[in-house]
Design goal:
Elements lengths: L3 E2 L13 H10 L4 E4 L8 H11 L2 E12 L2 E8 L6 H11 L2 H14 L5 H6 L10 H10 L6 H7 L16 H10 L3 E4 L9 H13 L4 E6 L4 H14 L2 E5 L32
Parallel strand pairs: 1-2, 2-3, 5-6, 6-7
Antiparallel strand pairs: 3-4, 4-5
The site of one manganese (II) ion has 4 residues, from loops.
């Protein structure tokens, strides 16, 4: 059975390894088919493709788009996209455009909470000036000892109701799916178990996602518990959605699963790669 990992990050967004280094690690970990899916960014794709080619690793160009739906942040993964598609390129540029100002506001809030110069601190971890994220702030808060690890940072800071949380409007769901499809790709709901939707909201969300042309959801992801593997396998089946598998690896020591380390998809679901020439 092929080891397929379709979700991870590099220094082009909030990962700690460069795209070529992530490729080498995927190969080392026994991954056969690999997608890099940086947040709101396509800049790592040429390096990732080249490195994967050199390593004999089958490569799928990908992205993870930040979306706001009913006030919640949702992530939509696009796979097999053409990274030169103008609408996708422009849409992502607009989506990430407000990150700089958001980061400054986050920093002001943290300063008011007794943590000065967090913007400068976070910048030390940023690999791409266009993509400063909460993860970079979280790494700085761990560095200065405000929290022991990233998980604790997100429990005490940077999330709703906590210092450093700045509400932000990302892309619209319909637009994100449209950009992905327009670029020849397939749209997948990332880590569905992570959202705070009611059952009613989640149903309405999936209806709109499918209406827009979305075709799959992650079932096996580093963000799900084993219970959630079963739950979302059933949801995918009931909703007629294909299933995906991805570690959501961000860097050594930071992620629950290393590349390719996850369980395989359950037999009960139809893999998103069913019709791919692998
Ligand atoms: P942003 O796009 O700037 O809002 O940052 C979101 C990123 O923060 C996600 O992609 C994760 O990498 C990270 N993140 C969010 N919640 C957590 C958490 N509880 N623990 C660790 N990382 C998290
Ligand atoms: Mn991330
Ligand atoms: Mn995500
Ligand atoms: Mn991710």
């Amino acid at each position: 059975m092929l080891n397929i990992d379709l979700h991870c990050h590099s220094t082009v967004s909030d990962g700690t390894l460069a795209p070529a280094v992530v490729a080498a690690r995927a190969k080392e970990m026994g991954v056969d088919v690999w997608a890099l899916t940086d947040h709101d960014e396509l800049g790592g794709i040429p390096e990732a493709r080249q490195a994967a080619g050199d390593l004999g690793l089958r490569y799928v160009p990908g992205v993870e788009i930040s979306v706001t739906w009913a006030g919640e942040t949702v992530h939509i993964v696009g796979l097999h996209i053409d990274e030169n598609n103008a609408d996708l390129v422009n849409g992502l540029a607009a989506t990430r455009g407000g990150r700089g100002r958001r980061a400054e506001e986050m920093s002001q809030q943290l300063a008011a909470a007794g943590i000065p110069d967090a913007y400068e601190g976070a910048l030390k971890y940023v690999g791409n000036p266009d993509l400063i994220s909460r993860t970079h702030f979280a790494r700085y808060l761990v560095e200065i000892g405000a929290c022991p690890d990233l998980r604790e940072v997100f429990r005490n800071y940077l999330t709703e109701g906590k210092p450093g949380y700045v509400p932000f409007r990302w892309a619209a769901l319909k637009d994100a799916v449209k950009w992905i499809r327009g670029a020849g790709g397939v749209a997948i709901v990332a880590h569905p178990g992570r959202y705070n939707f009611t059952a009613l909201e989640f149903g309405a969300f999936l209806d709109e996602f499918k209406q827009a042309g979305g075709i799959g959801m992650e079932v096996i992801t580093g963000s799900h518990t084993p219970d959630q593997y079963d739950i979302y396998a059933k949801v995918a089946k009931a909703q007629g959605l294909l299933a995906s598998r991805g570690s959501d690896f961000h860097g050594p020591g930071e992620s629950k699963f290393d590349l390719g380390e996850l369980p395989h998809l359950p037999e009960s679901v139809v893999p998103v790669w069913r019709d791919w020439a692998l």
